[in-house]
Amino acid sequence: MKFFIDTANLDQIREAQALGILDGVTTNPSLMAKEGITGEENIKNHYKAICEIVDGDVSAEVIATDYEGMVREGEALAALHSQIVVKLPMIADGVKACKYFSDKGIKTNVTLVFSAGQALLAAKAGATYVSPFIGRLDDISTDGLNLIAEIRHIYDNYMFETEILAASVRHTMHVIDCAKIGADVMTGPLKAIEGLLNHPLTTIGLEKFLADYKKGN
Ligand code: G3P
């Protein structure tokens, strides 16, 4: 499973990259705003800065909600850097724009996916990634992980190449459960990734090894 970090915070992206496990970055307009990045030029420069830090795919979301606008914005975003993936909302014009970009060989990420039917449409439109939001489904008492399992089942039935990018991951158990189900990618906050490191027996074991070493040296 690929690990993407879901943030526009450059320090956190650097930290995950330094760990050596980072495969890409996802952002969205809310994450950009959280970092105080506003205005078209600043946002574009920020995407370029992210691409300079990571080796993998960087999702950049369009703001337009009409087909022509999405195509125009998506082309400008894709031209920024070879690592940019055009992120499109799961609406009718987003599906059309996804088909347009996939026909042109430009990578896409269809976002705001909350049902298996939407994921099926994204795959039919040739999306590179589909982003089901598991945390937001959990928030409304609906099993987000079950959606990942449903999409995995459907995509495997037909050997769709669209990668399942489990998004709105909130914590470490989400990461592990996504890996069990067979998500191709998960994107989450740094804390969800770093949580994978922790085990008390590792801490205790290391302390004991070091104490025993000191006794003999
Ligand atoms: O990857 C999608 C993500 O940015 C949404 O996460 O935590 O706002 O539901 P969240």
Question: Would you write up a description of this structure?
Answer:
There is one protein chain. It is built from eleven helices and eight strands. The chain has helices spanning 10-19, 29-34, 40-53, 67-80, 92-103, 116-124, 134-139, 144-158, 172-181, 190-194, 200-216; strands at residues 2-6, 24-26, 57-61, 84-89, 108-113, 129-132, 163-166, 185-188. The protein has an eight-stranded parallel β-barrel with strand order 1-2-3-4-5-6-7-8, surrounded by seven helices. Strand 3 (57-61), helix 4 (67-80) and strand 4 (84-89) form a beta-alpha-beta unit. The radius of gyration is 19 Å and the shape is globular. The structure holds SN-glycerol-3-phosphate. SN-glycerol-3-phosphate is lined by residues 6, 26, 28, 31, 133, 135-136, 167-168, 170, 187.
- Average the pLDDT over all residues and give the rounded result: 97
Ranges where pLDDT stays below 50 over 5 or more residues in a row are none
Helical percentage: 40-55%
The general outline is globular
Helix and strand string, N-terminal first? Answer: EHEHHEHEHEHEHHEHEHH
The main sheet orders its strands as: 1-2-3-4-5-6-7-8
Q: What proportion strand? A: 15-25%
Tally of strands: 8
Please outline the major beta sheet: 8 strands, parallel, barrel
Separation, N- and C-terminal Cα atoms: 42 Å
Oligomer: single chain
Overall structural class, as computed from helix and strand content, comes to: alpha/beta
Identify every distinct bound molecule in the structure, by name, code or SMILES: SN-glycerol-3-phosphate
- Separate helix tally: 11
Taking Cα atoms only, what radius of gyration do you get, to the nearest Å? 19 Å
